[in-house]
């Protein structure tokens, strides 16, 4: 049981680090959007690359922070029944959800995205816009990062919930 919690804590630490690192992209997005608005309304100038850069930052933040969001239980859930369940029932439901849905979806998305990302790298895909950013292939690579960080957090949940199921009830003292 201790080993499961050690694995879970290690995986949690990875996603915590990635989430905190990616959170700084929000600041860059705000600064980028502010500079875009200033350029547009004060200098009557627009650059496609600025708009694409903000889109890139948003996509990277979303894709990389998914595991962090799952770690903090901040994804949208409908907990009509789950909130009334005892801890072991919640753990069992989470294990089933991770095994039947989360990990297969992450594996499938990774599998089907691999060729998509690889073909983008093979041609060093660029923006279709004249003044766009030349790094579409790098942006597409974050789909794979999404799969990995989310799956790692799913494994962490699996370990933590398995440890919860393995706990013995403490005997009440008379």
How is this fold's topology laid out?
Elements: H1 2-41, H2 48-64, H3 66-71, H4 87-122, H5 136-166
Helix pairs in contact: 1-2, 1-5, 2-5, 4-5
Compact summary:
This protein is mostly helical.
Report on the structure:
The chain is mainly alpha-helical and 174 residues long. It is 75% helix and 0% strand. It is built from 5 helices and no strands. It has helices at 2-41, 48-64, 66-71, 87-122, 136-166. The protein starts with a helix and ends in an 8-residue tail after the last helix. The mean pLDDT is 92.
Give the tags.
75% helix, mainly alpha, elongated
Q: Write down the domain tally.
A: 1
Helix content: over 70%
Our measurement of the CA-to-CA distance between the termini, rounded to an integer number of angstroms, reads 28 Å
What order do the SSEs take from the amino end to the carboxyl end, as H and E?
Answer: HHHHH
**Tally of helical runs:** 5
Main beta-sheet strand count, sense and barrel state: none
Structural class per helix/strand content?
mainly alpha
Enumerate the spans where pLDDT stays under 50 for 5 or more consecutive residues: none
The backbone outline, from C-alpha atoms, is elongated
Task: Give me the count of strands.
Answer: 0
Mean pLDDT: 92
Task: Report the C-alpha radius of gyration, rounded.
Answer: 21 Å
């Amino acid at each position: 049981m201790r080993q499961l919690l050690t694995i879970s804590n290690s995986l949690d630490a990875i996603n915590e680090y990635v989430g905190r690192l990616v959170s700084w992209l929000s600041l860059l997005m705000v600064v980028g959007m502010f500079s875009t608005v200033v350029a547009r309304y004060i200098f009557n100038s627009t650059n496609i690359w600025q708009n694409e850069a903000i889109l890139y930052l948003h996509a990277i933040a979303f894709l990389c922070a998914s595991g962090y969001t799952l770690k903090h239980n901040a994804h949208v859930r409908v907990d009509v029944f789950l909130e009334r369940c005892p801890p072991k029932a919640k753990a069992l439901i989470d294990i089933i959800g991770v095994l039947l849905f989360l990990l297969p979806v992450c594996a499938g998305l990774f599998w089907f995205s691999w060729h998509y990302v690889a073909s983008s790298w093979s041609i060093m895909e660029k923006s279709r816009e004249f003044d766009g950013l030349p790094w579409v292939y790098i942006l597409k690579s974050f789909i794979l990062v999404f799969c990995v960080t989310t799956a790692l957090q799913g494994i962490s949940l699996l370990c933590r919930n398995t440890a919860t199921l393995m706990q013995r009830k403490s005997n009440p003292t008379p």
